[in-house]
Write a structure and sequence with these properties.
By secondary structure, this protein is an alpha+beta fold. The chain is built from four helices and four strands.
Length: 123
């Protein structure tokens, strides 16, 4: 499976590198190097496990960014949830690809954008 060369997480681009194998320890399939801006993935995984591991490592980066620490159990269940949710609900991705763009996301107080304006006209 061809993995993306990079992911943007909280505005920072992280390189995604397929390696053979990860030498951090037995059973380690991925590793997020937060300070270096790199996510390492074992290139020998099947596509489903690669995607689940990518979510897992991305969540570790989010934990580090928001909490200053990482929780392995939390990363495991959240990544498994997101991965399974997307597999079982592929239509949600179609919604994002068809409708979501940076201009459509805004906070409710700003009342900017076409949806906010049409909603304020209904009140």
């Amino acid at each position: 499976m061809q993995t993306p060369g990079g992911l943007i997480i909280f505005g920072r681009t992280y390189d995604v590198r397929d390696v053979d194998p990860i030498h951090a320890g037995e059973g380690i399939l991925g590793m997020a190097a937060y300070r270096d801006g790199v996510i390492y993935l074992d290139r020998n995984m099947d596509p489903s496990l690669t995607l689940s591991t990518l979510w897992h490592e991305a969540f570790h980066i989010a934990q580090q960014e928001m909490l200053g620490t990482a929780d392995e159990a939390q990363a495991r269940w959240v990544s498994l949830f997101v991965h399974t949710f997307l597999l079982q609900n592929p239509g949600i991705l179609e919604c994002y690809l068809a409708e979501a763009n940076p201009a459509s996301f805004h906070d409710e107080e700003s009342q900017q954008g076409p949806r906010a304006q049409s909603n304020s006209n209904r009140a």
